[in-house]
What does this fold into?
Amino acid sequence: MQHLIDIMDMTVEEVDQLILKAEDIIANPAAYAEKCRGKKLATLFFEPSTRTRLSFEAAMYELGGHVLGFADANSSSATKGETVADTIRVVGCYADIIAMRHPKEGAPLVATQVANVPIINAGDGGHNHPTQTLTDLLTIHREKGTYEGLTIGFCGDLKFGRTVHSLLQAMCRYPNTKFVLIAPDELKIPGYLRDKLDKLNIPYTETPDLESAMPELDVLYMTRVQQERFFNEADYVRLKDTYILTPEKLSKAKSDMIILHPLPRVNEIPRAIDDDPRACYFKQVLNGKYARMALIMKLLGIS
Ligand code: NCD
It folds into this structure.
């Protein structure tokens, strides 16, 4: 049985095939309308979500399947002291596949140890978010036509931003990737990822300055400062407005750069940017549904 806890659980070939499958779903949606007939997806969200949970649910409906679950840990037996392991055993009696989000890093991995159905990590604390990465990869594939030779700027909260951690690792596997890591000192990428870049000899620079990094980027991946992961409010308040992508800063970018953001945004991308042809974050939302359709099929062994 295959789970998806970390994007590195999949080989690069598996990821590429999944993206091609998602492209085929986009081109021929009717061919997939019955693929999961009779199957049930459980979405267990112990942490808030709009896009991830609803895109999983929409994905399962579009495959002809059913959905059950909860969107709030307070309405689950977690409030009575039930462990994640027990919740997974119970839900495994009702569902064929489980997507779970949890504030604790590693909780979905624990789930796999007792699960009798595939588990999908829909975000674990400040750690990983592999299905957002599939979404991001599909968007890069559709917008840039390649994963090779791209200079990717990650901007904002690179310390707690789990989507950054997963996409960075996924992009390390494609030829000639370069990273520009744009963050204040307090929000730089975790040491284990810097070690990985060093070990793989991936070229990267770290800078606090978005404007000066802009001209070389093919992809700008903006993120919000992750308020819920800060230990003290004063640090959050000091850092929250560090990066705002103004039209003036964007004027320094390549004309075919793409702007991605996993959303939700707070103020780091003003509305004025939404009409710029480089703004791809709402297309990215739609792509998330197709990437998750392809993933659900893969983990259920449906071709
Ligand atoms: C992200 C997440 O939950 O990590 N959102 C999402 O799933 N699209 C990003 C965020 O919350 O900032």
The chain has a mean pLDDT of 97. The chain has two domains: 7-129+288-299, 131-285. The pocket of N-carbamoyl-L-aspartate is lined by residues 51-52, 123, 129, 132, 162-163, 224, 262-263 (CB under 6 Å). The longest strand covers residues 40-45.
